[in-house]
Amino acid sequence: MSREKKVPYQRVLIASANPLFGQGLEKMILRQWKDPELQIRLVSSNEAVLIEMQHWSPDLIILDYDDKAISRSEFLQEFVSGDQPMKVMLVSLKSSGAVVVYDRRTLTPAQAEDWLNLPKFSQTASEHSPLQRRSSMKHFVIVGVLIAVFTALTYLLLSNIPLLPIAASVQAQPIDALFNLHIFMISLLFSLIVVFLGYSLIVFRHKAGEEEEGVYIKGNNPLEIIWTVIPLGIVIYFAYLGSVSLAETRRADPQALQIKVVAGQWFWRFEYPDYGIVSNTLVMPVNQQALLKLTSLDVIHSFWVPEFRVKQDTLPGENLVRELRVTPTELGEFKVRCAEMCGTSHAYMESPVKVVTQSEFDQWVQDQLTALGTDPVARGEVWARNNGCFSCHSVDGTPNVGPTWKGLYGSQHELTDGSIVTVDDEYLLTSIVNPNAQVVKGFAPGVMPQTYQDNIPEQQILEMIEYIKSLK
Ligand code: CUA
Known about the structure:
Helices cover 39% and strands 19% of the residues.
């Protein structure tokens, strides 16, 4: 093809201490270029190159890459970046007959290929011969099939390991689906890496009698774009799936049963404000959404029932109540664990969780209320304790954040506005539901929570007043 063309370099200098290199290359070039104008000279040292440059001015210098007698770095400094920049090719002749060009600083691959006109010369995939392309396609097909097989086997193996307990809630479904997809992705990525690695190690290993150095490959833009864009797409897709699943686990049912979850070092307490029940066992009717409102009395704990999958930290502080929605789907007994390191007994911070039928739940509520008794004073004390009243009000006259309850009923108080009131039922009720209306002199307004009217059933408030009345 290029034989019709005029030789682009008329004076070619070949530098090698090995005469076979120079003669072999000369013969090869003369075969390619049957041009009478072509002249080739052979030299064997840096100094000789210098002399020829001054007297003969070659158009191209071909340097023996494998020649230890010629210092490549010195040579390149002199002739590529020095005063007289030259066209230089670093060439290695292999025992197999292949010609490898290692440095193309002054010649583009197309120019170099044109010059030597050898198919093996090129190192970029697009310039492979059809034969080589077919054989690398064969490798890719084999590797592709192996990856598919390995992925299937790994996925089968991993998904048969019982990593998770049974899924016992509606919220567990999207989470398990996501887990499943992750396990598939893990299997695929594992196989992708291991199969490529293993195949290359075995098929392209150094076989006996092979002396050649491997082909030097630097960079591959299409490959780098592919392995950046595809994982990026996958990660974005998983982020999308994650947010969809999160929304799914938070889907609210307006009929949800409200349960207040109080965590402390080291216990769980479950309060059912609709029924006025406090329990150390979390009892839930099956197939009904429970809206858990979680809080902590001291440090951060974490509510976790593995069978329900969802998990939520409990934080100390009234304004840091967190919500979790659980719709149990399986009858049975589970355990709530604490999933946040919270002190020495963290590992033992467990409570039973019972998922029961609706009628069993109703029966349990009745039993709890019966056990509570009918004495309003005794019940009032329970409500006061559940609502944390005793952290501010003493019942024995000890001074505290709020006025003591001992001897409170019937006594006379001076208020911050200077007026005098007698403590009666109405005054106590106002003080509980609207604590800032009448603040006793000597106490700061705004300290007592103003949420009791909404949070405590009226019957319980009245029973608490009966309890306060009893503290003479
Ligand atoms: Cu509470 Cu760990």
